[in-house]
Amino acid sequence: MNKDKFFELVRPMFTKLHQAAVDNFNKVFDTYPKDVPIMWMAYGMATAFHETAQTMQPIVEYGGKEYFKKYDTGTKIGSALGNTRPGDGYRYRGRGFVQLTGRRNYTLAAGKVGFNLIDEPDLALDFAVARKIMREGMLSGWFTSRKLADYGDGINAYDYKNARKIINGLDCADKIAGYARNFEKALKAAGLK
To answer: What is the model's pLDDT at position 30?
Structure first.
């Protein structure tokens, strides 16, 4: 794979392409799973690009403690997220590459990826853990019951816009679809098949 070609084509997407982002892309390339079609990989990159504010590093959802009260127990959103204890809104705020949010989702992810995210929610900020959460959640559909395979084989065609439903309805779907097309083009130009 010609990584230089890849970075040449994606660099304009970034306000500033930091070395940490380059390092994270390289970790992905060095461990690229052969069972994941290129279009699925491009969509995963686009999701991470969007959800991490272009850093390509697992991050914590922006906002102070007051902001996360909207996720607390007793609120409509908090109930939907399975937050049952005071402070759950802040404790289980969005983290990682996909912004895993809510006690229910942290509990589900913990069972799927084998890390104690309930007692240690910041584990979702570890690159390997965040990547495993994103990969397994998108492949098997445990975020929203929708999975990568629902939107095309990833080899011949892919519905990048509707794939957003894997993570968060159609929120910013057109924007993320554009990112995915750019990543797909860069991956193909770099020789990844």
So the answer is: 77
For residue 103, the one-letter residue type is R
pTM above 0.90, yes or no: yes
Q: Determine the distance from the C-alpha atom of residue 83 to the mean position of all C-alpha atoms in its chain, rounded to a whole number.
A: 21
Tokens of 36: 């994941």
What domains can you pick out in the chain, each with its CATH number? 3-57+127-189 (no CATH), 67-123 (3.30.20)
- Structure tokens, 129: 């853990």
* Residue keyed to tokens 């990584």: 3
Position 186 scores a pLDDT of 97
CB 167 within 8 A of CB 144: yes
> Which tokens sit at 71?
């996720």
* DSSP string for 80-95: HTT--STTHHHHT--E
Tens of pLDDT along 152-182?
999 999 999 999 999 999 999 999 999 999 9
Torsion angle of the four alpha carbons 179, 184, 187, 192, in this order, in degrees rounded to the nearest 10: 150
Q: Does residue 2 contact residue 191 with C-beta atoms inside 8 Å?
A: yes
Q: What is the pLDDT of residue 78?
A: 97
Tokens read off for 142: 């445990």
